[in-house]
Write a structure and sequence with these properties.
The complex is a heterodimer. By secondary structure, chain A is mostly beta strands. In chain A, about 0% of the residues lie in helices and about 55% in strands. Chain A is built from no helices and 11 strands. In chain A, strands 2, 4, 5, 9, 10 and 11 form a 6-stranded mixed β-sheet that branches. A 5-stranded antiparallel β-sheet of chain A has the order 1-3-8-7-6, with no helix packed on it. The model of chain A has no long low-confidence stretch (mean pLDDT about 90). Chain B is mainly beta. In chain B, about 0% of the residues lie in helices and about 55% in strands. Chain B has no helices and 11 strands. In chain B, the strands form 2 sheets. In chain B, strands 2, 4, 5, 6, 9, 10 and 11 form a 7-stranded mixed β-sheet that branches. Chain B is globular, with a radius of gyration of 13 Å. The termini of chain B are far apart. The mean pLDDT of chain B is about 90.
Chain lengths: ~110, ~120
């Protein structure tokens, strides 16, 4: 079946460096994508979203890039901090209000 | 804004008993809420869509008679795990759908269910 997947299960970065978390999706009909951050024992926290009519969107220290040609989504975190350590999920909206979540990437920030 | 709460945050029960989990939208009304299940080190899997005033829509493979969902008001949805078994132990998360220019879902903090 169609799914959203991630390339890297774990990403380790040094504090202050930039982080890039990738996500591949397969449903060409998806028109809305969201990145969530989940800390241990907590629910997902909305980070940033993007619609399919855009290819880039920036927030505070975060940027989401969407490449519809290759069905690829990425989350860039600038100047990664220890508080950014968490599991990051991409999710796609398939037009029915439902979200399909990717497998997740664990981001570890070391000093 | 857009705060979603869940109660309880943790629950331990004996096998065969039923457990009710509440999901509330605190500062907005939600006509649609979603229930997810998450096993350790895995992603969120949608269980069902809860619509206010109507029957829930369950995803394929989710037993509607085991996971009872009630969405009696615009701010409250409940999930009851009936006749719980150890394999039902999981992290249950709800979300509320808010239309605010984009179709964003805001998630509750989750409920850790442990069935002995």
């Amino acid at each position: 079946g169609e799914s959203v997947g991630l390339h890297l299960p774990t990403l380790s970065v040094q504090e202050g460096d930039n982080s890039i978390i990738n996500c591949a999706y397969s449903n060409s009909a998806s028109d809305y994508f969201i990145w969530y951050k989940q800390e241990s024992g907590k629910g997902p926290q909305f980070i940033i979203d993007i619609r399919s009519n855009m290819d880039k969107r920036q927030g505070q220290r975060v940027t989401v890039l969407l490449n519809k040609t290759v069905k690829h989504l990425s989350l860039q975190i600038a100047a990664t901090q220890p508080g950014d350590s968490a599991v990051y999920f991409c999710a796609e909206n398939i037009g029915t209000d439902k979200l399909i979540f990717g497998t997740g990437t664990r981001l570890q920030v070391f000093p | 804004g857009a705060v979603v709460s869940q109660h309880p945050s943790r629950v331990i029960c004996k096998s065969g008993t039923s457990v009710k989990i509440e999901c509330r939208s605190l500062d907005f009304q939600a006509t649609t809420m979603f229930w997810y299940r998450q096993f350790p080190k895995q992603s969120l899997m949608l269980m069902a869509t809860s619509n206010e005033g109507s029957k829930a829509t369950y995803e394929q493979g989710v037993e509607k008679d085991k996971f009872l969902i009630n969405h009696a008001s615009l701010t409250l949805s409940t999930l009851t795990v009936t006749s719980a078994h150890p394999e039902d132990s999981s992290f249950y998360i709800c979300s509320a759908h808010i239309l605010a220019g984009v179709d964003t879902q805001y998630f509750g903090p989750g409920t850790r269910l442990t069935v002995l």
